[in-house]
Amino acid sequence: MTDMTNQGAMVPERSRSGLKTEFAIYFAIIFAATVPLACLTWTLTLIRSGRVPARGPIARAWSQARIITPMIFAA
Asked: What pTM was estimated for this model as a whole?
C-alpha cells in the first residue's frame, strides 16, 4: 500500500509571467486612477507657490502607482 499522506495537495504554482502580467495590469489601473489626482495636486501647488514643482504630474502618478501596487500584492 502506498503512503500518500506526505505528498500534500497538488496545487499548481503560479507562473512568474502570470504574476508579472497581473502586476502590470494592476499598475496600469492604479496609474490611470492617480494621473487626474496628480494633475490636480500639481496645479494647486503651482497656484499656491507660484512656481513649477520639481516633479511633474506624470512622475507623481508613477511614483504613487509604484508605492501602492506592491502593497496590494503584499496583502
From this structure: 0.70
